[in-house]
């Protein structure tokens, strides 16, 4: 896997199938537990490596799923309380 922007295509119980936004033919699986947000099909995420760990970030401006925006909003509200 390499750093970049990915779209979540499908989610299994423990893994998500990701397709690269930059290179449409690159697909990878990524552990669902390693995402920093409650990931949904259709999300666009940025993935990069820091040391030996992969880091992820939900890309709100590139995600078109309304349910993903709602889940992210609720998570942020709960974290602020």
Keywords for this entry:
5-stranded antiparallel sheet, alpha+beta, 81 residues
Structural commentary:
- This protein is α+β, with helices and mostly antiparallel strands.
- 19% of the residues lie in helices and 40% in strands.
- It is built from one helix and five strands.
- It has one helix spanning 66-80; strands spanning 4-11, 15-20, 27-31, 44-50, 53-58.
- A five-stranded antiparallel beta sheet has the order 3-2-1-4-5, with no helix packed on it.
- Strand 2 (15-20) and strand 3 form a beta hairpin.
- It is globular and about 40 Å long.
- The model has no long low-confidence stretch (mean pLDDT 83).
In short:
The protein has 81 residues and is of the alpha+beta class.
Describe the secondary structure blueprint for this structure.
Layout lengths: L3 E8 L3 E6 L6 E5 L12 E7 L2 E6 L7 H15 L1
Antiparallel strand pairs: 1-2, 1-4, 2-3, 4-5
Q: C-alpha Rg, in Å?
A: 12 Å
Low-confidence stretches: none
State the total count of DSSP E strands.
5
| Helix-strand category | alpha+beta
Fraction of helical residues: 10-25%
Terminal CA distance reads 36 Å
Beta-strand content estimate: 35-45%
- Which descriptor suits the 3D outline? globular
What is the element string, with H for helices and E for strands?
Answer: EEEEEH
Q: Order of strands across the biggest sheet? A: 3-2-1-4-5
Chain-averaged pLDDT: 83
Largest sheet: 5 strands, antiparallel
Number of helices: 1
């Amino acid at each position: 896997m390499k750093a970049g922007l990915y779209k979540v295509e499908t989610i299994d119980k423990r893994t998500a199938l990701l397709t690269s936004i930059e290179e449409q033919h690159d697909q990878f699986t990524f552990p669902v537990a390693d995402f920093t947000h409650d990931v949904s099909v259709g999300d666009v995420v940025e993935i990069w490596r820091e040391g030996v760990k992969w880091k992820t970030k939900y890309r709100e401006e590139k995600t078109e799923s309304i349910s993903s925006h709602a889940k992210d909003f609720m998570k942020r509200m709960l974290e602020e309380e």
